[in-house]
Write a structure and sequence with these properties.
The chain is of the alpha+beta class. The chain is built from 2 helices and 2 strands.
Length: 66
């Protein structure tokens, strides 16, 4: 097992249903996701989402993190 494989987590992603203009907590959650995707010491990024649409939104945010 490599050092990278030992550090990982699954992120529970539950976006708010109503968010035309993300504010407060929504901005913080997206910032956390972007930061984790960019800096995590892991081979994969795992998401636990309630729907395929939510998982797609998670993947889109993570993909823009670089």
């Amino acid at each position: 097992m490599t050092e990278r494989a030992r550090h990982n987590a699954a992120i529970l992603y539950r976006p708010d249903a109503i968010s035309d203009r993300p504010m407060g907590r929504q901005v913080a959650e997206e910032g956390f996701l972007r930061g984790y995707a960019r800096h995590a010491v892991a081979d994969s990024l795992y998401c636990c989402a309630a729907s395929p649409e939510d998982a797609g939104r998670f993947a889109a945010i993570a993909a823009t993190a670089g």
